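Ligand-bound model needed. adenosine-5'-triphosphate.
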Amino acid sequence: MARVFRNFEELESFVKQERGKGRKIVFTNGCFDIVHAGHVDYLEKAKAFGDVLIVGINSDSSIKRIKGEKRPVVPQDYRVRVLLGLRAVDGVVVFDDDTPLEVIKLIKPDVLVKGADWPVEKIVGREYAGKVERVKFIYDISTSKIVNKIVEIYCGKKVED
Ligand SMILES: Nc1ncnc2c1ncn2[C@@H]1O[C@H](COP(=O)(O)OP(=O)(O)OP(=O)(O)O)[C@@H](O)[C@H]1O
Ligand SMILES: O=P(O)(O)O[C@@H]1O[C@H]([C@H](O)CO)[C@@H](O)[C@H](O)[C@@H]1O
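Prediction:
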């Protein structure tokens, strides 16, 4: 089963151990507030770029700063637990900064992956990765779309994007 790294030191020693076995380290990051089919698809494709997939997940306070006070809908411990249950994921680490730059600088992944909604020039940490991969969306879904649909259904209000 996948594991959660309690701190960056634990993560660093895991990465060193895996690299020692000749394994390719893939890293990606995100908020993963309400996990959906798009996340599952992109994480499986991310894993396929290497041998070990580590996912950096924003802390609750990080998400509040970057996505607004009303988010996240799902607390970080539950968001972590969902990712740990995904077949593609080997490890999860929570980061509290606005960006995963410090984690990426630490592990220098062989491959850094984001969904194709992120232009390369906006992918934080790209200069510390062996290469950067952007995964195209095959599902037209997002956490925001899910939230907005629920508000529309239950509150009869159209939420402005
Ligand atoms: N439909 C999708 N298909 C593939 N990848 C996706 C999809 N939606 C988001 N991603 C990717 O998942 C990662 C986490 O993104 P995030 O948690 O912001 O999801 P989101 O659904 O876009 O959430 P929000 O609507 O709150 O922005 C990012 O790398 C993003 O590019
Ligand atoms: O879930 P998101 O919004 O895709 O995740 C964010 O990604 C940002 C991205 O990596 C910038 O290149 C990152 O800075 C931010 O902390 C979220 O993880």
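Residues 8-20 form the longest helix (13 residues).
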